[in-house]
Amino acid sequence: MDISTLAGIVVGFGLVFMAIFSKSGWQTFIDVGSILITVGGTIGAALINYSIPHLTGLGKIFSQTLKKNEAEIVDIITMMVSFAEKARREGLLALEYDVEQIEDRFIKSGMQLVIDGTDPELVKDIMETELSYLKERHKANHAFVKGLGAYAPAFGMIGTLIGLIQMLVNLNDPSKIGAGMAVALVTTFYGAIMANLIFLPLAGKLEIKSAEEILMKEIVIEGVLSIQAGDNPRIVQEKLKAYLPPSLRGAFEEQGGE
Q1: Which residues, 6+ apart, have CB-to-CB distance to 258 below 8 Å?
Q2: Is the pLDDT at 76 greater than 80, yes or no?
Q3: SS in 3 state form for 221-240?
Q4: Do 72 and 216 form a contact (C-beta atoms < 8 A)?
Q5: What letter does residue 67 receive in the DSSP assignment?
Q6: Cβ–Cβ < 8 Å for 128, 221
């Protein structure tokens, strides 16, 4: 698990709350009306622009930022090389039992196509089509979270304008102006926190995780096609290692790769 997402949220909110509660008058930062405007407005705008499944799937999107893909990439290359070695010794049909034990649906379906004797061009087309749809889904999720990051401060500003209007009504009582201004500005504070400590960082993390998952799928496609072509396991290994950055090549070699 990649705990940096949770750690960042905890540290960020922790330091903000420490700063607030270290001073007197922290009660000013708690305003139910401001929360309703900022959170409710953000949810409403998201529903207008997207759909209910997008909103209900926010938890699943968040869980994607907790996945750690780097070790999986090394494991996938190791597995592909071992498949190439077994196929070289015993033939493609010998891989059938091993493929049944694979949990990753993308790898399993690709290898099953190979074992079934599907034409290489068709195998490549099927797997690349699935990859292209994965990219579109990731792109939509990224746009959704980034959209939330844009709506939150906008509704924070709207809440501030509402508070200022209400404050101006009481201009005849100067004693209420300071408190009214504080309540008006706290809505902008909520929107800025939601955008810059939750949604925009999550959108950035999703983009990184998406790139890592796409890389893994590209490695799988290359590995599957190489195994089907009967390439030497060493050639398969060198092909797949080319996808890795230097830091991960060391991890691969530690696992037994040459």
Answers
A1: 234, 237
A2: yes
A3: HHHHHHHHHCCCHHHHHHHH
A4: yes
A5: -
A6: yes
Q: What are the phi and psi torsion angles at 250 (to 5°)?
A: -65, -40
Whether 71 shows a pLDDT value over 80: the answer reads no
Structure tokens at 214: 């796409």
Give CA 6 to chain center in angstroms.
13
Domain spans of the chain, in order of start: 4-254
User: Positive or negative CA dihedral for 171, 176, 181, 187?
Assistant: negative
Q: How far, in Å, CA of 201 to CA of 149, rounded?
A: 9
What's the pLDDT score for residue 103?
Answer: 86
| pLDDT tens per residue across span 26-67 | 777 888 888 888 999 999 998 888 888 877 888 877 777 777
Determine the average pLDDT of the residues in 127-145: 91
**More confident: 122 or 70:** 122
- CA 30, 34, 40, 41 torsion-angle sign: negative
Alpha helices in the chain (DSSP H): 4-21, 32-49, 52-56, 58-64, 70-90, 96-100, 105-115, 120-169, 177-194, 200-229, 233-241, 246-254
Single pTM value for the model: 0.79
